[in-house]
Automatic annotation (TrEMBL):
Organism the protein comes from: Auricularia subglabra (strain TFB-10046 / SS5) (White-rot fungus)
Name of this protein: Peptidase A1 domain-containing protein
UniProt cross-references to Gene3D superfamilies, sorted A to Z: Acid Proteases (2.40.70.10)
Sequence ranges of Low complexity compositional bias: 70-86
Domain of life, per lineage: Eukaryota
Amino acid sequence: MSSQRIPPKTLVVPLEAPGRNVSYESGYAHDVVRWGIGLGQDISDANVGPGFYMTEKGLFRKVVVDDSGPADAPGGAQPPAAVPQGIATGGHSAPAIPISTSMRSMIPGLTPTSAAPATNVPAPGPRSDRVGASVTWINRLLRLEPINVNELAPLLDPYGGYTAAFQVSVPSNLSDSHRADWVPIWTGPMTLTDGATKVWYLWVDSAACDTWTFCDMDFAATRKMPGKRNWDSQEWRSFYERKSRIPTPPQWHIDNPNNEATIIYGDSTGEHSLPLTVLLTQTMIKLVTLDLTREIPLTVGAATGFTPGVLHSVRDGILGLGRTLTRKSFFGQHTRWRSETFVEVLKASGIIEKSVFWITISHPYYDREYTLSHYISFGSSWVTGAVPAPGPAVCVDVDDSAGTQGTWCAMLEKIIFQSATPGSRPVPIEVKQMACVDSGCSQSYFSETVCEKFNRLNEQHGGTGGNVGNFVGNFGKDDKIIFEFKGQWHGTVQAVGQARRFLVGPAKSRANPHADPLPVKQTFSESFSLLGVNFFRTFVIGFDESTQIPRLFFAPHPFL
């Protein structure tokens, strides 16, 4: 750490990467419910391979069958039956969410519902598959089977995103905090029964303004909000009790309706949303950084109600890094304290001078392991000596014209792939969409048209295409991917990065652990895109609200 030089008025917070055993499907499923992303593909289509799929009618499994019976279960083949109503309707009426694909390897002993209606679906014809792929449904029959979601949900591996570790304390006199002259008395970091200090892992989310965590309200007293999964399973209590939680806010917090908010991740209709209720309360968080320990007062939401999806997907809470100047807090105007973004609090505390932060996320395939492989640098740029220095940064205007206040968005005109093979022509992919730069997304999402072009590009490099089950092709070290943005002040700007950093993701699919799914999928909108973690593995990204026009900076990671 002696070679790492931290600029003055800078706070460096290390990040913890998602677990190595987290599947690609788990990250995809989390993105879907968080942003309300629907696949818009009929899962009875023969081109949709075996796997778990969440639909409007519930969770379904698609399995391989042949004349002697299912390939992954004992017993004879079942006779064809009608597809459950609403599943095989095609189009966007039955959005499918791949959850996982190998029941035996994932959940030993889990069996499908015995009274499951099923349908046999012709498999697609032969095709040339990438070497190493195990696409077992070619020239086979597939069957749909409903699955009891309560058997499955508690056993799925949560995605969790990139998290920052904190210690937390609360005032011992919080019950008196309604008084105007209240001065908090801090009790020190909370400890476990064995005397060890608790650690909170908060998911870093550049598309959220409010910070929240779970509280230790008795599980029976929490508000059980309806979601895609229901509350029948007893596993949910153990999920809840394993989390680091702050003390339950005092009764006057609970009784004051102005102090409560409902935060909704995903679409606002509730069809694909993750809602939770939170009470605004006071904490003191302790940041253990490279060289020193800082304590910072932070107003957070204490979660008192949630869906099973929130309980399952979020580790201990969310650290909001959304926009400050055009923030979109879920809390109203009459709360006891104002919900501030984390950057606002750092600046008000004098820890940083400018409302600027940079996020560095390394690629596990192409970057060596460093002491600081993933981190946020608040107040200045990246830390010299932590990881190989990125290339020169380009500056892109933040765009709020599409009503995206509170998030970091820019107008993405096109994406260009440039192969390093001599004589190769650039492959332009027109986008013309507002793109949200979101560290909370496990991959990137574009319109159906853009995704089709990415799939064709992938197939040309030896990968397999399709919205479900596509595996990435072979991209060379010197192949480039160019993101062309357009802004009011800086005009047209091109950010040039290493193509394989963006197109090759480290998360393995349970469908085929020997291949990497292409981390580009179809989003819910023809006019809005999401640039997720694979974009962060391609560029070190700066978020700047210190100037009149907010800016994003993209500095390419080295071509390794």
